[in-house]
Amino acid sequence: MNKVYVAKLGKAVGLQGHLRLFIDSDFPEQFKKGAIFTTNRNLILKVLECNLNKDLIKFEDYEDVDLAKKLTNSELFTTEEATKEYCKLKENEFFWFDLISCEVFEDDLKLGKVKDIHRYPLNDYLEVETDFNLVERKLPKNFLIPHIFGDFIDKVDIENKKIFVKNSFDILENS
Questions:
Q1: Which residues pair with residue 134 across a beta bridge?
Q2: Where is the Ribosome maturation factor RimM PRC barrel domain (predicted)?
Q3: 21 and 7 Cβ atoms separated by less than 8 Å
């Protein structure tokens, strides 16, 4: 099962088991009553209530402050399957886990493979592990492509694990 990190739990708030919720996901709608998450300590937690306006969450069987305190600083994970079920994507939006390991092409030239995704304040960036043939030509082993449709990303084909880009070979050469 592939786990996807989505949030961290902060300190207990009040006496009824509420915890501060620090969401690290583009899909806050997945934090709803009945949703199930696992923690980095392999606990399975079922959401009893969630107030996104106040960034508070409460879990079944942790309904008092002393029990809730045991969850402080836990990281919450969901599955790729649950993410796909509960999180609806708009046009040209993709799950990170679907983009990772996609091959990157500019025209007919294979630039490499997506190794990771980095979030910066203005844009997300694809970290690309440069194709072996290009590394042999003394180009950098890794480089970043801004995840901006139209400017750098032309088309994403998740089914075939391919991303078609433009203006990106220049970035590689100048990295």
A1: none
A2: 96-166
A3: yes
CA distance 37 to 110: 38
Domain residue extents for the chain: 3-86, 96-173
* Contact (Cβ atoms closer than 8 angstroms) between residue 50 and residue 57: yes
> How, if at all, do strands 162-165 and 103-106 pair?
parallel
Q: Tally DSSP H helices, then E strands, for the chain.
A: 5, 12
- What pTM was estimated for this model as a whole? 0.75
**Residue whose C-alpha is closest to residue 21's, from 42, 50, 44:** 50
The domain over range 3-86 is classified in CATH as 3.30.160.250: no
CA atoms within 13 A on the CB side of 86: 20
β-strands 75-79, 3-13 pairing: antiparallel
In tens, the pLDDT along 97-147 reads 999 999 999 999 999 999 999 988 888 999 999 999 999 999 999 999 999
Identify the pLDDT of residue 42.
Answer: 93
Is the Cβ–Cβ distance between 47 and 32 less than 8 Å? Answer: yes
**Token pair listed for 56:** 């508070």
